[in-house]
Amino acid sequence: MPIDSHLLVLFTLTTIVAMITPGPDMLFILGCGMRGGPRAGLLATAGVATSEAVHVAVAAAGLAALFEAVPVAFTVVRIVGAAYLIYLGVQMLRNRKGLDSEMPVAAGGGMSGRRAFASGLLTNLLNPKMVTFTIAFLPQFINPQLGQVWLQFAILGAILIALEFVVDGAVGVLAGRIGGWLRRRAAARRRVDIATGGIFIGLGVRLAVER
Predict the structure, then answer these.
(1) Angle at 167 between CA 25 and CA 84, to 5 degrees
(2) CA 126 to chain centre
(3) 102 CB burial (10 A radius; 0-12, 13-18, 19+)
(4) What angle do CA 75, 17, 9 make, to 5 degrees?
(5) Fewer beta carbons within 10 angstroms: which end of the chain, N or C?
(6) Which parts of the chain sit beneath pLDDT 70?
(7) What is the pLDDT of residue 162?
(8) So what's the pLDDT on residue 17?
(9) What is the DSSP string of 31-84?
(10) Those residues with Cβ within 8 angstroms of residue 6's Cβ, 6 or more apart along the chain or in another chain
(11) Residue of 48, 4, 84 lying closest to 172 (CA atoms)
(12) What per-residue confidence (pLDDT) applies to 59?
């Protein structure tokens, strides 16, 4: 086996604990599901998972050295990612008055699947903390003495992405069903979009101020 079995078990257990703990990704997917329905929640998960695949590749290639060699790169990417999240939140708050004329959630809801996927992908890609977390986390479960380090990274990355779909995907679908039920009522629909927009803005501010 190209990976240490004991490290593999430890990695899986640790990742599960990390996944079920509410964090930025889960809150983002929750918001997408509430606004766009189960499909949007699932596609937002797919976008986040795709970005995580990129992060794993970056970690394996050792590109984290860029942030060490050029510290300003970390700040630039962090600010861009935060600005994008805040933009999404502001757009939701601005569009809340036109909810009564929107199509029913079953026909597309307040967020299309394509936009949910792109938002999940870009938001996570522009979060340097996810890159640095991946770089700090995955190598702890790599055994260089076994060789085939790239293959070990690939196995761990595949498990990470699979768990992302299982946990956050379930959250997105459930939020979509609850959000769809709420959006059938005009007053509740406005509250959903206000809450979702607030979540996105809050995440953006948190990302901007964290060091």
Answers:
(1) 15
(2) 11
(3) middle
(4) 110
(5) C
(6) 1, 21-22, 62-68, 74, 77-78, 81, 95-110, 129, 132, 136, 179-190, 192-193, 207-208, 210-211
(7) 92
(8) 79
(9) HHHHHH-HHHHHHHHHHHHHHHHHHHHHHHHTTTHHHHH-HHHHHHHHHHHHHH
(10) none
(11) 48
(12) 74
Q: Crossing angle of helices 38-61/113-125, nearest 10°? A: 30
Spatial distance between the Cα atoms of 174 and 45, rounded to a whole number of angstroms: 12
**Dihedral angle sign, alpha carbons of residues 97, 103, 104, 106:** negative
Single-letter amino acid, residue 47: G
- At 102 the pLDDT is 42
Q: Is 3 helix (H, G, I), strand (E, B) or coil?
A: coil
Helix, strand or coil for residue 88?
helix
